[in-house]
Design brief:
Elements: E1 14-18, H1 25-39, E2 42-49, H2 76-83, E3 91-96, H3 99-109, E4 114-120, E5 123-124, H4 130-141, E6 145-148, E7 158-162, H5 170-179, E8 184-191, H6 202-222, E9 232-237, H7 240-251, E10 255-260, H8 265-270, E11 285-290
Parallel strand pairs: 1-2, 1-4, 2-3, 4-6, 7-8, 7-10, 8-9, 10-11
Antiparallel strand pairs: 4-5, 6-11
Helix pairs in contact: 3-4
Length: 299
């Protein structure tokens, strides 16, 4: 039996903007509107009223609903007023409960294909630890999450997919290729040669290790329908967080795409983080895509 190629990803027909209504989230609103226009998609704005925030919204009893469900009429007018003219034509939903539960519940109920959110004070939706909230949203919603850091100046032009070539890693790459077909696309792999500092000829050792990484990249791409003229392959020595950040700054990258899941690039980026994840240090927008199933092995 021939190996099964990973399926391509159609552009989402419905986007969900998760906003805490802070000024920095205006960037996420602008990007969500840009993508909705580019993909001819519907856009829904969602605001979660967490238990600690209810006093800021009403002096009386707050209507209740199962956590994660939407209350379309609850304070939607206030949310729309805060969105201003930029919110014209956008459906607004407000829910009560933890942010991750509200966003993921509405996303599933409305069959959204992408969640878009912003970063306020280097925190996702006002949370202290960006990485923890990202992981929670991706796990709960089980769909792509776009974290907007920069103010949009048009469509994404330079996109890099950071990959470790692990099982399922083709999904983020194919998503990027299908969602942004006119963008310059690069596949970035960071390799960290073990014991490099202990070898007599470090340069030769690192070059040999790079050759191994090149073969891994070739085998990885052989399982996808992408051609060499569509994709630049970048292999760099060093730790994934350092290599990714340096590449983004050197190439003026607009968007980084990474996969989620155990042993994924995202997992490595979050490992060992304390107050702020390395994700908060990457100076561009980040698209987190759930990893897909691995191709079936040939018989």
């Amino acid at each position: 039996m021939e190996a099964t190629l990973p399926t391509t990803a159609a552009t989402p027909s419905r986007l969900l903007l998760a906003t805490d209504l802070s000024p920095r989230c205006d960037r996420a609103l602008d990007r969500a509107r840009q993508l909705a226009g580019q993909w001819h998609a519907e856009l829904i704005a969602v605001h979660a009223i967490e238990p600690a925030d209810t006093g800021h919204w009403t002096s009386g009893a707050l209507p209740t609903a199962p956590e994660g469900s939407a209350l379309p009429g609850l304070d939607a007018l206030r949310v729309r007023r805060r969105l201003g003219e930029a919110g014209d034509g956008i459906e607004v939903l407000v829910g009560t409960g933890e942010c991750e539960a509200v966003v993921s519940g509405i996303a599933r109920a409305r069959d959204a294909g992408l969640v878009v959110t912003g970063v306020a004070r280097d925190e996702l939706l006002g949370r202290r630890t960006l990485g923890r909230s990202v992981a929670a949203l991706v796990h709960e919603a089980r769909l792509p999450l776009l974290i907007v850091r920069e103010r949009p100046r048009g469509a994404y032009l330079r996109v890099v997919v950071a990959s470790d070539f692990s099982d399922g890693s083709a999904a983020p790459l194919l998503t990027a290729a299908d969602w942004f077909p006119t963008s310059r696309l690069a596949l970035l792999h960071a390799y960290d040669p073990p014991f490099a500092g202990m070898t007599a000829d470090r340069a030769t050792y690192e070059e040999e290790y790079r050759a191994v990484a090149a073969k891994e990249a070739e085998a990885f791409l052989a399982g996808t329908p992408l051609s060499g003229d569509r994709l630049e392959v970048v292999l760099e020595p060093g730790s994934p967080p350092a290599v990714l950040t340096a590449h983004v700054e050197a190439r003026d990258i607009d968007l980084v795409v990474i996969g989620s899941g155990e042993k994924s690039f995202l997992h490595r980026l979050l490992a060992g983080s304390t107050d702020t994840s390395i994700l908060a240090e990457v100076p561009c927008d980040i698209l987190v895509v759930p990893k897909g199933p691995a191709p079936e092995p040939a018989a």
